[in-house]
UniProtKB/TrEMBL annotation:
InterPro entries: EcsC (IPR024787). Pfam families: EcsC. This is Peptidase.
Amino acid sequence: MKALIVAPDDTALQWQRAPLAADDYQRLLTAVRQLESPGLAARLSNYIGMPVEKALASLPETWVKPVTRLTQEALGKALDAALLTMPAGAVPRPAPKLSHKLLAGLSGAVGGSFGIASLAVELPVSATLMLRAIAATAHEHGEDLDDPRVRLACLEVFALGGSSRSDDNAEIGYYAVRAFLSKTLEESAKHIVKKGLAKEGAPALVRFMSAVAQRFSVQVSQKLAVQSLPLLGAASGATVNVIFMDHFQKTAQAHFTLRRLERIYGRGRIQAAYRQAAPTIQ
């Protein structure tokens, strides 16, 4: 992998940058709408006709604690399979949509019957499929996947979600999440450049993975709770998985749209425009 290039101070360049073009401003609004609208819990609640909190309350206590551990293990396997071992210069190709549908159908059919056991098998596979699709989205938006920061930014998508208006308290603003993860992301990328892909001796990478997994596990728990409801049949369980995967693919589109706009106009300007637009999004 190529060496990291330190970007110049963005604030010093703000006055040199052109105002946002109308098309780019519309792209920003679309991204804000996706990232600040109610997240996965609201979509699942609308589908099953009841609050996700009620479904979570019915989740067996013995299933709750292992979810974060299983989520972190799944992300580690997905990162290895989908990104870290990808050759330099490779262009990721997301799995065909049929694979997503087959996976959703299979896991949805067995999810309610086998619970946490099915999650341990399903989640690494679905996370890998999603991460490949996320990497393809990053490439489409002009990201350099040879840069380890970009590869880790793909994983960062799993930590992003909707606003807290009707979602879990763990949901916080888009730029707040990125700021929270930025230090460990940079330190992890530097470790990968210097020492390769080994996670041993990389405390920053462990912290980064843990932080992403902690936020992602909230949505994994929501999916598991809904999918395990007795009222859901196999077909409905498959639909839950489709909603889950679609949520993160749309989040990836919004995330890399904003990163592309930041490269054009500067992060400070896009962040300010985002914060100005966010309160107007219904």
